[in-house]
Specification:
alpha/beta; Rossmann fold; 6-stranded parallel sheet; 12 strands; elongated; DNA-binding
DNA sequence: CTGAAAGCGCTAACAT
DNA sequence: ATGTTAGCGCTTTCAG
């Protein structure tokens, strides 16, 4: 067990070469004689050496660190995606020899501590999650920090982002209802303050328009993404539109709520009313009836975000990306 | 927008003092005249300076970094706790001015890259999750890395850990069934390879013994923590013990599976058979009947682990900790 | 292809 | 109470 820290100088000595040569071997500089490369590598594995990141950082100016910043005001607890996204990020970074720095911080106000932690020289880049407020992020970007946002920032924003195709997914979902013969299709929409809420409603609308069914405002009810919100919205819908035979619900949690109302009203799913959700959350697979839904590639979101910051660090200017979603047909539609 | 990096030397110059003095102010050294402290602080905020971590690390030998390492072989995706735990860790570390380094890596074999990333000098400490294999962790500990494990390691292990009180929780759950009058109490136990599986079974046993009911091996069925596993176990149980009036299921997911079997068999919950789960997972609150269960303080687990590594870094030797659980009575028992 | 030497930005003796 | 100075471990000119 090598407690004592061995340095590059130690390697140089036991290999009988100069520190510069060792450094070259470490960094894959081609102009070192093969013979010395072997000697150095032997010394390295013999002594169990690994380079000191801090020293390297100090001279190169690159930290090898990319921050993953999540707004602590978000309800992380109820977000089952968090684990998958961070896994995606961590693994993608790892492959590019970067390390992920995890920061859970309040981002609603301009937090000086966040800014200080991410100031030039502290990290090489950053990935931000679903922000409600762009200010801190914009400031950091102006300071020259390479960064990408997971989720969609304000329309006017110049931030680079990765997001799931909320519009396309909603379109797929609604199209599926149309294809299976539904005529009176309603929707439980999500919070319209969020881009995901707006885009999912737009996708529903578009699919309807394409099929010539046309959009009817009375067939739209709004929920707050929770199961209870889904129940309430469904009740409203059924009262005003007793004839509906299909519902696209903007997320699975609300869909579960909506389904319980439908059952309570004695409607058979999917015979009387077909239901499609969005997210492919785990709980949707649990009930007696498995929920037909739209799956997002959550881990891919993280991996893509990581790949993009890395490209930005390399000086490129990658375009924002929208990842495709997938319809998963199960019992409810 | 201060793009150019300002250094401690710049501060020294504009404040008209020596670099050493600036450093002292930065580190809160009391023996600097108040007047100069102000002057330095003014210069700092004026120039928007923040110290370079790498340089500091290089000289102090402390990185300010603590790694959170999770075995990528674990099914992170299905683990709803991951987000909460990391949140707990990140916030606790943040308060102590440490940063969390997130590593998702295979830990089943001795991975040299993990060891290299965590070698002395790379991080100040580490937190490991639910490992199936202690080898890498033990190696690192022998190398002098302060570390704590979340979850319980092998009995013989000398590792410091934080874990939920699986035994106590199971005891509470079973006790609750007894208290509400159940006479024939079965259990769907979890994987006995895992300490959590064993401890939850032990807790059930203990509660039974205390109340004089006695343990009956035929009232134990084993599941694999999944809903399907819960269904199968419940079927076995009902067949061999048609008279049971209460079940403690070792986790909520299996409990959900068990409940569906009970309903299918026409047993009313909780009148005919009362059910208590474990974990307080979100999905347990969704169905028509909300699951009575045992809650673990998941975020606390993370926070505690963080606090403990920090103490170890400070040279203390904190004892392993078992966090209390809480019974949440809802509809099913 | 290789080595010598000069720092990167900071802290910590050591002086004063 | 304050300044001077010597590195921390590494990379990178610059010579050869």
């Amino acid at each position: 067990m090598n407690r004592a820290k061995i340095t590059l100088a130690d390697i140089a000595e036991t290999a009988g070469v100069s520190p510069a040569t060792v450094s070259r071997v470490l960094n894959g500089d081609p102009r070192v004689s093969p013979e010395r490369v072997t000697r150095v590598n032997e010394a390295i594995s013999e002594l169990g050496y690994s380079p000191n990141r801090a020293a390297r950082t100090l001279v190169t100016g690159k930290t090898g660190l990319i921050a993953a910043v999540i707004d602590s005001n978000l309800n992380v607890f109820s977000d089952p995606f968090w684990g998958q996204i961070t896994t995606g990020i961590s693994q993608a970074l790892q492959e590019a020899n970067f390390q992920a720095l995890l920061m859970v911080r309040p981002l609603d106000v301009e937090d000086p501590s966040v800014v200080a932690s991410l100031a030039p020289g502290q990290v090489d880049g950053a990935i931000f999650f679903q922000l409600h407020n762009d200010d801190t992020v914009n400031l950091l970007q102006d300071m020259g920090l390479p960064l990408v946002v997971v989720g969609r920032p304000e329309e006017s924003s110049k931030l680079t982002y990765v997001d799931s195709d909320n519009f396309g997914g909603a379109h797929q979902a609604t199209k599926h209802l149309i294809d299976r013969g539904c005529k009176a299709i309603a929707t439980v929409a999500g919070d319209q303050q969020l881009s995901s809420g707006r885009l999912r409603l737009d996708g529903y609308r578009k699919a309807l328009a394409e099929s010539g069914i046309g959009f009817d405002e009375s067939r739209v009810a709004y929920g707050d993404w929770t199961d209870v919100g889904g129940e309430q919205a469904m009740r409203t819908l059924i009262e005003s539109n007793p004839s509906i035979d299909g519902v696209f619900v903007a997320n699975d949690l609300m869909a579960l709520g909506a389904m319980s109302v439908l059952e309570e009203q004695g409607r058979n799913i999917p015979e009387d009313v077909a239901v499609v959700g969005f997210d492919n959350m785990f709980a949707g697979r649990l009930g007696r009836q498995q929920l037909t839904t739209i799956e997002q590639d959550v881990q891919g979101l993280g991996a893509k975000a990581a790949a993009m910051v890395i490209r930005m660090i390399d000086g490129e200017r990658p375009k924002s990306v929208v990842l495709p979603t997938r319809l998963i047909v199960r019992d409810t539609a």
